[in-house]
Amino acid sequence: MPEHEGEERPGRLQQILSRAQEWILAKPAHVGYVVVIAALLLTVPFGGLAAAPEEELQQVPAGSAATAAPWEITLDRAIYGPELGGSFVAGELTHVLLMGTLRNTSERTVPIADLEGSLHVSGLPGAADPLGTPLEDGAIDMSLGGLYDLRPTPIPLRALVPGLDYPIGIHLTTTNSGALPEAIEVTLSTKTYRQSSLDSSYLWADPVSTAVLRVPTERSGPVFPSVWELEQ
Amino acid sequence: MSRVDHTARRWVGRGGTVAFVLAALAVARAIGDDLPQTAERYAEPHLVEVSMGQEADLRLAHVSVDNPRLAASVRGTIDLYETSGVWVIVDVTFTPTVEDAGIGYAELVDTEGRSYRTSRFESNSCRVSQPLITQRCAVALELPVEAVTGAVLRLAADEFRTSYDSMLEVDLGLEAEDATGLSADDAPVVLRQPDLAGTG
Fold it and tell me: Do B11 and A25 lie within an 8 Å CB cutoff?
């Protein structure tokens, strides 16, 4: 019952709202709390704090082009064997050569070292660098070279200039001397050209996986002539 | 004035201050992003523009460029370099002036600003020379045929650190039409290997 005629007692909800208003206005910090809580609640319809679902990687068959900054790459096949000819002479490791076409789609020359992080090779048993040190997580190692222009025989590339197609061989090595799987999967990642967080230089960084290229393998004997043979 | 009104007015005042500071920071950031960065501008290499055959007085050497030509393939000391574009080859003459120096940095820049640097291990035959010892050598750079017209060549001593240094720039005067008729079947241009000529 109202205490006086014509005066209505505030409802329970109004009381709560009034107290909430007083609490919010009591200190500016309380407004911050409310803003943070409201922002978190706004994310609920979009999944809240749950892990974002990973985008499915594009599956690229052999012979088809895939693009991931700063590269456009086509891989046709992989040949392997203890000796492939040219620079790939017999030794303790098995040579694997991913063959295809590579193009630098940026506006500046990109050193081959930037292929590291752009490409990851999975399904290559015994993967190792040219000195036999095991490589993990499908990493490729360009510190000792590893990218070749195949015209007219494998010649080491130092960098790729913009806008030209290079018929390439990516040289991998493995301690496995047996047969390789029927296909090797190469994961392609796109990078961003940005300023280094350490100095004022710019670099290709922050790789994000975008596509998987499936490359069929075939065992091979020596197929490349040496530069000396080409001279004759 | 009720307590709620008082606190509301106080909060509005503080909120206004915060909004003003945020707006000032946003404006300053927007202006700052558009202004040239002083340190970066100072660090940019100092371009010394010369004509073909004219000597540029760089910080570490006197450098000149001559005999520009195009080719479908280039032969280095061992390897044969082919390209899906065209090779630009120039002869370089340089004389270090104060200390040992070479031509570690070579770049073609086309009219769109795209940068083409050395792509093969032996496509720059210039080696480090001693003061007052003149060296003749050559640089070969590849680029798409359509990028040839108007391309300029830049040379500097250090391959990796061009900041605060001087850099030669020369307009090669080449045209894309000059590449017409070049064929991979043509005899490759043999890259000049370094030779020395004492001048002092």
Answer: yes
Which pLDDT value is given to residue A28?
A: 80
Let me know if A156 is exposed, middle or buried by CB neighbors in 10 A (0-12, 13-18, 19+). middle
Are A227 and B121 an interchain contact pair (Cβ–Cβ within 8 Å)? no
What are the backbone angles phi and psi of residue B175, rounded to the nearest 5°? -125, 150
Whether A164 and B141 lie within 8 Å, measured CB to CB: no
Distance CA B148, CA A103 (A): 18
What is the per-residue pLDDT for A7? 57
Q: Which of B104, B108, B95 is nearest to B127 (CA)?
A: B104
A80 closest CA partner among A226, A229, A223, A227: A223
Spell out the long-range contacts of A133-140 with Cβ–Cβ below 8 A and sequence spacing 24 or more.
A134/A175, A138/A187, A140/A115, A140/A116, A140/A170, A140/A172
Q: Does A32 touch chain B (CB under 8 A)?
A: no
From chain B, the residues in CB contact with A166 under 8 A are: 84
Structure tokens at B85: 């574009």
CB–CB contact A151 B82 (8 Å): yes
The pLDDT confidence band at residue B199, using thresholds 50, 70 and 90, is very low
**Are the Cβ atoms of B11 and A31 closer than 8 angstroms?**
yes
- For A72, phi and psi rounded to 5 degrees? -125, 120
**ipTM of the modeled complex:** 0.83
**At CA A146, angle to CA A143 and CA A149, rounded to 5?**
135
The predicted-structure confidence for B9-37, as pLDDT tens digits, reads as follows: 877 888 899 999 999 999 999 988 788 77
Best of A19, A31, A105, A164 to substitute, by most chain B Cβ atoms within 10 angstroms, is A164
Alpha helices in B3-146 (DSSP H): 3-34, 38-43
User: B76 CA to chain A: closest CA distance, Å?
Assistant: 11
pLDDT tens string B68-86: 999 999 999 889 999 999 9
